[in-house]
Specification:
Length: about 220
Amino acid sequence: MSVAAHLGIDLAEYDARIRTFIPDYEEMLDVAASAVPRQARTIVDLGIGTGALSRRCLDRVPRARIVGIDADADVLTIAAQRLGPSASLVVGSFARTAIPWCDAAVSSLALHHIRTRAAKLTLFRRIRAATRSDGCFVSVDCYPSRDAALARVQHDTWRAHLRRTYDTRNTTALFRAWAGEDHYLPLETEMQLMSAAGFRPEVLWRKGVFAVLLGVTARRPATR
């Protein structure tokens, strides 16, 4: 499914509308980009979308090359305009497309499309195998609490953000539509999977149901 169809919007509206859907969107992306090493030369963006996170990464590391992977060819046309010649854009699923050797891998509001924990662990291991020993993996996404009561509070806070723009009926319809495609793991589970894949996970930022996670590459043991 295309990004526009998934969100129920016209693609031209994406950059404006995403801020009405996701609270603290700008702050999350700023935190994520700030974690990219300044010496990075190749940054892979998984589910690059319109390139908002990659643009911030380039602002921080102007000499870097972006490799953006996204299954939606239409959304990549916007990313190409935003990023210019600094980006190589690949049409394909990040779950199957080869991940090139890189200094940093980043992703924003995309990895929740991975349906199972096993599939996500496989992806994390592929990211780790492609990331240099002094590199990192940064992920921005939705991570509800394991505690049901707290998860409801988080959801209500998110819902209140949407209600600033949309009425009750439309807000409910949006959540119902997203539920069919989005698969959110608790924060602790996501970090356990990152650790199992060979990263040292840290929480860089968290507010409500959203968080920015950093996975530092644990150096591989020397072979004999």
